[in-house]
Amino acid sequence: MKKIYIAGPDVFEKDSIERGKKLVEICGKYGFEGLYPLDNVVDFSQEKHKIARDIYEANVTMIQKADIVIANLNTFRGKEADSGTVWECGYASGLGKEVYGYMDTKSNYIQNFGDDEKFAREGYYVDSKERMIEDFDHPINLMIACSVKKIIAGEFEDVLKAIA
After folding, report:
1. What is the pTM of this model?
2. What does the pLDDT read at residue 106?
3. pLDDT beneath 50: ranges in the chain
4. Rounded to whole angstroms, how far apart are CA atoms 132 and 129?
5. For residue 145, what pLDDT is reported?
């Protein structure tokens, strides 16, 4: 049975444990074993940096055990995907794992910016600090878009349907 590492900012939600259980259950429905980061056992009575290191090492080990990574790439705390999730995708891709992402929409990344947040220049757009906004017709930064096998417009289960 192939193992799927479930990446995404879902771990920060109030109902993160329940979400994880549901995602793992959905994996089982499609014949996969789901690996959810919050299933790792970490001693939270330690010093904060030690807790952080233990979480990091446990997640790295879980990614190494996985055959596939499915990542929630929806925007989180801004216009980009969660930075931890992005790192997990890059690490998994570097290990040669199959990496898939899902997003609510596959619209062009530049559409994350409102009319009052992007400014047209000669053939490109910039943000309010005059930094160029990439426009490669991907829904996310090109480094993620080009490193994942596929980005699905939809939910976690939509990815499982596509790969099962």
Report:
1. 0.94
2. 81
3. none
4. 9
5. 95
Spell out the residues 6+ positions from residue 94 whose beta carbon is closer than 8 angstroms to its own: none
Q: What are phi and psi of 114, to 5 degrees?
A: -70, 165
- Three-state SS at 77: coil
- Residue 32: closest CA among 147, 162, 124: 162
Q: For the chain, which residues make up each domain, given as ranges?
A: 3-107+139-163
CATH of domain 3-107+139-163: 3.40.50.450
User: What per-residue confidence (pLDDT) applies to 61?
Assistant: 98
The size of the chain, in residues, is 164
Q: How big is the CA angle at 160 (ends 1 and 87), to the nearest 5 degrees? A: 90
Torsions phi, psi for 108 (to 5 deg): -60, 140
DSSP state of 73: -
Rg (the chain; Cα; Å): 17
Quote the tokens at residue 20: 């994880």
3-state helix, strand, coil in the chain (%, to 5): 40, 20, 40
Residue (of 51, 55, 66, 90) closest to 6 by Cα position: 66
* Tokens standing for residue 139: 């829904």
